[in-house]
Amino acid sequence: MNRFSVALLALATALAITPAALADSVTIGGPGSAPGDWSQEWLESGVGSFNQVDAFIETAGVTFANPGLSASGWTGSNGNSMYALLTGAPTTSLYFYTNIANAISVPFTMDLYALSDGTVIDDATAYWNGSGWDVTAGAKGLPLEDTTPEPSSLVLLGTGLLGLAFLAFRRARPARVSGLTLPV
Hints:
Blueprint: H1 3-17, E1 26-27, E2 32-34, E3 37-57, E4 64-70, E5 75-80, E6 83-100, E7 108-116, E8 119-128, E9 133-137, H2 151-172
Antiparallel strand pairs: 1-3, 2-3, 3-6, 3-7, 4-6, 5-6, 7-8, 8-9
């Protein structure tokens, strides 16, 4: 393998393992019961300091109870029946509950976000299949952040593309041998 192939393989490996490094909201207990509702306890930690947790239910017909999110010492409120948020003093670790108004057997998908002063620092998508959770860290790719590439990234991309074009040009040209005459 030439150096270019090794470098490309190393870059692909680094990009592939990066999402696994994200800390995330994880379930730490099974569903419980409240009058007419059910709730799930979660832990958000390992992402730095945050002061807000948002949750969005993606599945039509499934709604949050009121409040949709709750945590000791934090204020929970519902933006609407499918959006809930928690706000509180900055922390690096928080146990919180999602409170669901539908029957526990109803499957649904929910997006969770941790924010620091309005900037998303962590996200996850949680799927409830009616008896257990499947949580995917970084599933939304932190959509609330600015996605405009910085100038140095564009310069790096342009330099790489120029290098690839130069290699293609050199390989496409016929080889020149000086001082040799080919028989006719």
